Amino acid sequence: MPFAESSQLLLETNNRVTARKRKASTTQDSPRKRQRVANEPELKKASTEHIPATQTPGMTTPERGCDVLPSSIGPLGSKQHNQCSCFRGAASKADFEAEYLQLNRLAEGGFGSVYAGFRKTDNFPVAIKHIRQADVERQPTVLNGVMCQVPIEVLLLLKVAGPESVGRTGVVSILDWYDLEQEVLVIMERPVPSVDLLNYLDINDGPLKEDMAKTIMRQLVEAAIQIHSKGVFHRDIKPENVLIQTTSDGLRARVIDFGCGCISTRRPLHVFAGTTEYAPPEFDMYGSYKAGPTTVWQLGALLYEITDGYKQFTTTLVLRKRIKFNKELSQDCLDFLQRCLAVNPKDRITLEKLLLHRWLA
């Protein structure tokens, strides 16, 4: 299919769209200061969507385009009600309100709303995600010895960063979850102080210095390797889905929002879920993509945005050979970017080799 036609298909066949919006920080909002390059046409704001390339026979979860695989998760370890909370209505709103205090809204999107809050027993800061039952996709899972229909986002978080890993990984951990009649509540740790990477660019008033970008990218590559090692495919790595936490030891990058994620397999996927501007070129050209090469592509797209600072990345720019890199970047950084953004996925560097790249050394 010619590029122009496939791009049109990409825009016309989506069935779930969330505009790429500014997410609220856990501290305070800052206005967007980045300006687009002069004389460039206005680019469509990125959106998070599920886009079928074709109808694939035997696809068990057509919206996500992922296979449903039986899973097993050990004890959640936080509250006794988790043993049965996988059953619809088993946990009440009163149970949630007895454990947590909900405060202001932090973000809102196609996959739900997120609020700040605290755990009442110890004032531990949490983020509370509300997802409508109508939007919840589930997977059969053995949880604490009981077969449950677990929300996929909950399952992915439990696989990658359960309650036992709070503050210790590059992924924000799940603490608890409640399966209510009208919605699912996902309780996660809330790094404080922190702000999403897109807001961090605004606060920085433009592109990040290369050394700072390197620090963030090293942590994100490590987090991506951790996520893949657990058999999970995030599918929507972008500045809005990375928190930058300020600590006494420096900046920490934390991956959030597995709302587009799925269980990873070696087989290619034929339905894209994520931000269309970050969709890998192989999906646009051939209608299929795989976890590893896609994650590398999205990491390269993210690095482009944080080191350019003025123009939003789109895969279309690469395919039309209209992408221009910041001339102030070192040769090692440029090599890193070009290896991530190789149009042919077979030529793209792997995550493991990315971590060993001389730019991150």
Automatic annotation (TrEMBL):
UniProt catalytic activity: L-seryl-[protein] + ATP = O-phospho-L-seryl-[protein] + ADP + H(+); L-threonyl-[protein] + ATP = O-phospho-L-threonyl-[protein] + ADP + H(+)
The entry's keywords: ATP-binding, Kinase, Nucleotide-binding, Serine/threonine-protein kinase, Transferase
Enzyme class, spelled out: transferase
This protein's GO CC annotations: cytoplasm
InterPro entries (UniProt xref): Kinase-like_dom_sf, PIM_Ser/Thr_kinase, Prot_kinase_dom, Ser/Thr_kinase_AS
Record GO biological process: negative regulation of apoptotic process; regulation of mitotic cell cycle
Name of the protein in question: non-specific serine/threonine protein kinase
The UniProt record lists the keyword Transmembrane helix: no
Family: Belongs to the protein kinase superfamily. CAMK Ser/Thr protein kinase family. PIM subfamily.
EC number in record: 2.7.11.1
GO molecular function list: ATP binding; protein serine/threonine kinase activity
Comp. bias (Polar residues): 1-17
UniProt region (Disordered), positions on chain: 1-72
Biased composition regions of type Basic and acidic residues, renumbered to the chain: 37-48
Span of domain Protein kinase: 100-360
